């Protein structure tokens, strides 16, 4: 069944949140693809240059690939869930906001412990901002109308 708008007067907040989620989803997919396909030799070179123990490298690579795959899956999930939210589905809105906040915490954590580069902080900030914007009063009333 195709998703159709409930009415024409979609609040600007919903549009802004939608585009923030789309940008975050694209960044998550790109970041996930980069991490999950990173060259083992290049990562090993940086690992050794930083003076880390060579025995821990295998576990580190598994962790990087795991974070990459999770980022990729979350990015695809955010991208797919954003469309029904844009058209007024309150159930998807709650699910997407919950997913966004959980992964924003994970994203902040991986930046703070130094796994992800500092520029990755943009993704959790976009996810949090979109979750807050979509629950503004004007958007709330639009989602609760005609339910």
From TrEMBL:
<keyword id="KW-1133">Transmembrane helix</keyword>
<keyword id="KW-0812">Transmembrane</keyword>
<feature type="transmembrane region" description="Helical">
    <location>
        <begin position="16"/>
        <end position="39"/>
    </location>
</feature>
<feature type="transmembrane region" description="Helical">
    <location>
        <begin position="119"/>
        <end position="135"/>
    </location>
</feature>
<keyword id="KW-0472">Membrane</keyword>
<feature type="transmembrane region" description="Helical">
    <location>
        <begin position="59"/>
        <end position="82"/>
    </location>
</feature>
<protein>
    <submittedName>
        <fullName>Uncharacterized protein</fullName>
    </submittedName>
</protein>
<feature type="transmembrane region" description="Helical">
    <location>
        <begin position="94"/>
        <end position="113"/>
    </location>
</feature>
